[in-house]
Amino acid sequence: TKNKAVVSTQSGHYGRGLLKMKVLFCIVTLIVSTAQGSGFNRVLQFPREVSLENYVMLQPDFNDIQEELTICGWVQFYRTEGGRYWFSYATGGGDNQILFGNQVNQQHFLGNPMPTDYYTKPLTTFTWYHTCFSWNTGSQYEELYLNGDKVSERISAANSKLPTGGTLVLGQEQDTPGGGFALNQAFGGEIYGLQVFKRKLSGAEVEDMYKAGICNYPTPSEGVVIDWEDFLDAQRYGKVEEISAGCSKWEILRNFVGQEITPELISYFEALL
């Protein structure tokens, strides 16, 4: 009978089992090296005592997402009074091109707020939320998801496009590109695993991301325009720091226990490097 190598958390038998363990060792090595050299378990923390000095700034190339995009990540708030904005993309033509805050009606796209017709619950402090926003100009649908559930939607104007050449800031709300911050809008909390995709993810894909949990390593995707590592490498100001998400690198192995070791599985791990 032909033996198949299988990912297992138990020791294999000697002899033929030795080969299985060697293959497993190689895969675990790939996983561990990936976790150490990636954004896995690395959280951006913005102090609870808010300041206009605490933010992260990027000059993103958004040419690939002018007509279709998804933005997903994990966020928790240390304070929720008023409007606390954690993601802001502004251009010379408008300061609220993309704006995410601590309430549904504080999420803006192309200058317009998302409606709160069927979600009015306030977000609580010190709680991780998985949030996703998706849109494409073909369907005109803007959709906002919270913890895998759609909580708001609206129709954008026909033939809308996201302006390029803007400034992306984490931790502050911009009134002008790269500035115009207000203390009562500054963010205090944590952000993790933020990604910008150049396609509109389906509701099922968003739900799967949430159910996989905060410690799940994101699947490599050619559709990612800005990965979490890009945010970690961006210019930080003030007292924004990296802290641990509390995830073990062994969490990456969890989804592969019991799977047959195939060329496709090995290729997956190699793609993570």
Please tell me about this protein's structure.
With 273 residues, the protein is of the alpha+beta class. It contains five helices and 15 strands. The chain has helices spanning 16-36, 203-212, 228-233, 251-254, 263-272, and strands at residues 42-46, 55-58, 68-77, 87-91, 94-100, 108-109, 112-113, 129-136, 141-146, 149-155, 167-170, 189-197, 224-226, 235-237, 241-244. Strands 1, 3, 8, 9, 10, 12, 13 and 15 form an eight-stranded antiparallel β-sheet that branches. A hairpin with a 2-residue loop joins strand 4 (87-91) and strand 5 (94-100). Helix 1 runs parallel beside helix 5 (263-272). The radius of gyration is 21 Å and the shape is globular. The protein starts with 15 loop residues before the first helix and ends with a helix. The model is unreliable at 1-20 (pLDDT under 50).
